[in-house]
Amino acid sequence: MNVDDPADDPDGPLRMTPGPTEIPSAVRERIASQPPNPDVEPEFFAFYRDLCGKLEPIYGGDDVVILGGEGILGLEAAIASLVAEGDRVLSLSNGVYGEGFAEFVESYGGEAVVCEAPPDEPLDREAMENHLSEGEFDVATMVHCETPTGTLNDLEGILATLADHDVLTVVDAVSSLGGVPVPTEHIDVCLGASQKCFSAPPGLAVLSVSEAAWDRIEAVETRALYTDLEPWRDAADEEWFPYTHLASNLLALDSAIDLLREEGLESVYERHEAAARRCRERAREMGLELYADESMASPTVTALSVADADGIKERLWDEEDVLLATGIGEEADEILRVGHMGHNARIDRVERTMDALDRVLD
Ligand SMILES: Cc1ncc(COP(=O)(O)O)c(C=O)c1O
Questions:
Q1: Where are the transmembrane segments (predicted)?
Q2: What is the pLDDT of residue 222?
Q3: Which one of 3.60.21.10, 3.90.1150.10, 1.20.1540.10, 1.10.3810.10 gives the CATH number of domain 6-17+265-361?
Q4: Whose CA is nearest to atom 9 of ligand 1?
Q5: What are phi and psi of 355, to 5 degrees?
Q6: Measuring from atom 2 of ligand 1, which residue has the nearest CA?
Q7: Mean of pLDDT values over 297-310
Q8: How far is Cα 70 from Cα 279, in angstroms, rounded to an integer?
Q9: Higher pLDDT, 182 or 222
């Protein structure tokens, strides 16, 4: 037990939300240290390059860029930088974040064709293939883990088909990167955020960009200024960032990634699988049902079908000091979500959460 960590105190609060997650003490300590000046100190640029280098293997080897801003900034920046007036974008969706991409596309002047599947079903590959045979697309968007419904989309075949059609791919892997292997092979822009499986504080959008995506970003006449990724291509090497970087958040992320590397990615992935398995076993023992079929459930978050999710959440926090999340959108009150991601993907934390849930449901 780490006595510095309130979540390890059996009477302390335990936040098992699907991001932001609890932050390990080493990461909290680092954010309290004096950061270098991110505008002028050469050491800062060296540190930033080193951090991107540590992140690259998690993202499959492409260039990594870290933006100061939360996850949504990365989603918007990707679309703003890749999509010009009149470009055609195929948006695969089975949830809130998948659908949200289309709004970014339209607001930057693109034409979004949405391939929509119900939230408890896999992405519609057949519909995608029909669209691809009927017309040309510049970019395709999709989500790996739809956090609001706890589903993990199987992307490998979809990405390979899109690569065969020379369509650039943008994948929101915000709640899977660092907790689940992401099939990065045919991803051109892969989007993550600091506060999910990395267990650093919220505030950084962490994304990778392939060579093909950089070339398109340079070619596209974008409407974007603040969200334009183009200046980031050489920023670290030229030692000039488009705006003052969030130095303290970057220090925290660096410590979080060191913890991940010390443990080893394979063991991190296994820890997530084990936590998810135990959470679902306990849910079944309590007679609870998963929102979607278990074959679709993400190792990072469990979505349970319940009545009055909001009431259960309130009681868990008031009576048990355990924080969970409800759903998002129309089904918000019918879904209760247990986040077992990052630092929280631990059996003892899952057991304490499910004990508390058991008492409240009793
Ligand atoms: C799948 C997914 N994409 C994007 C986001 C947006 O991230 P942020 O809340 O950091 O803006 C979230 C947040 O929960 C998410 O779950």
A1: none
A2: 86
A3: 3.90.1150.10
A4: 71
A5: -60, -45
A6: 174
A7: 98
A8: 28
A9: 182
Cα–Cα distance between 303 and 23 in angstroms, integer?
22
Identify the burial level of 265 via C-beta atoms within 10 angstroms of its C-beta, where 0-12 means exposed, 13-18 middle and 19 or more buried.
middle
Q: For residue 174, how far is its CA from the centre of ligand 1 (angstroms)?
A: 6
Contact 350, 306 (CB under 8 A): no
Mean pLDDT value across residues 271-295: 97
**CATH 3.90.1150.10 intervals, the chain:** 6-17+265-361
Query: What CA dihedral angle connects 7, 8, 11 and 12, to 10 degrees?
Result: -30
**Burial of 8: CB neighbours in 10 Å, binned 0-12, 13-18, 19+:** middle
Backbone dihedral angles phi then psi of residue 32, each to the nearest 5 degrees: -85, -5
Whether 328 lines ligand 1, by a CB cut-off of 6 Å, is no
Altogether, the residues listed in the chain come to a count of 362
Q: Which of 23, 54, 300 is nearest to 179 (CA)?
A: 300
pLDDT of residue 10: 72
Lowest-pLDDT range of 1-5, 24-28, 58-62:
1-5
Which token pair is 84?
A: 């010009």
Helix-then-strand count for the chain, H and E: 12, 15
Ligand 1 pocket test, candidate residues 76, 149, 174, most atoms within 8 A of CB: 174
As a whole number, mean pLDDT of residues 292-296 equals 96
